[in-house]
């Protein structure tokens, strides 16, 4: 399948300075003190893969992903996240998403301008993407714990990738 090797951030949320996260084989979690940016890293990964909802990135507008400034550092005018890795066929790939304050965001795939749709298709074909059940955020864990059994079952089926099977079975039974 598709493999990710490196996430590059600049001006994204608390990662104001250029930062690289190496995504080695088997990486399943990130640990660190409260507020150090663990959730922001996961959000950067979702964002570069096409997340379109500001709320699921804990913001009210998309500009909220741009470094907002601190007592000692001014805000930034733009944020950029790059994801480097290999496609399922072994070809190298890099997806970059950049947002300018007040001007929206744009994507590049392998250095060429791309549409949000191209990015969505690239990851959907590899069964991953901004809404992949493999990315478990903090809020999602509380939701799983608080869920009723039927809801929890639906979440687990989604994670197991068998939702499509049920849909096809219902289709078949309806005939
Ligand atoms: P916890 O262990 O509590 O879950 P965490 O490691 O997940 O913490 P994050 O939620 O990723 O931490 O990071 C929170 C920090 O990011 C806060 O200090 C917050 O102020 C900062 N932050 C979030 N958005 C921005 C932004 N747009 N500009 C600057 N800082 C931001
Ligand atoms: Mg967190």
TrEMBL record:
Family: Belongs to the SMC family.
Transmembrane stretches, start-end: none
First and last residues shown, out of full length: 3 to 177 of 1130
Localization, UniProt: Cytoplasm
Residues at which ATP binds: 33-40
Domain notes from UniProt: Contains large globular domains required for ATP hydrolysis at each terminus and a third globular domain forming a flexible hinge near the middle of the molecule. These domains are separated by coiled-coil structures.
Highest rank taxon of the organism: Bacteria
Protein's recorded name: Chromosome partition protein Smc
Quaternary data: Homodimer.
Role this protein plays: Required for chromosome condensation and partitioning.
């Amino acid at each position: 399948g598709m493999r990710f090797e490196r996430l590059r951030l600049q001006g994204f949320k608390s990662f104001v300075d250029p930062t690289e996260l190496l995504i080695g084989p088997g990486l399943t979690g990130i640990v660190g003190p409260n507020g150090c940016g663990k959730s922001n890293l996961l959000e950067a990964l979702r964002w570069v893969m096409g997340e379109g909802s500001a709320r699921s990135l804990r913001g009210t507008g998309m500009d909220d992903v741009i470094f907002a400034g601190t007592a000692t550092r001014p805000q930034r005018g733009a944020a950029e996240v790059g994801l480097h890795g290999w496609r399922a066929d072994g070809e190298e790939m890099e997806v970059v998403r950049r947002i300018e304050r007040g001007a929206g965001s744009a994507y590049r795939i392998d250095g060429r301008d791309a549409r949000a749709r191209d990015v969505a298709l690239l990851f959907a074909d590899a069964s991953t993407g901004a809404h992949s059940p493999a990315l478990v955020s903090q809020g999602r864990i509380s939701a799983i714990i608080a869920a009723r059994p039927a809801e929890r079952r639906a979440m687990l089926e989604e994670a197991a990738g068998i939702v499509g099977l049920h849909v096809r079975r219902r289709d078949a039974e309806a005939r």
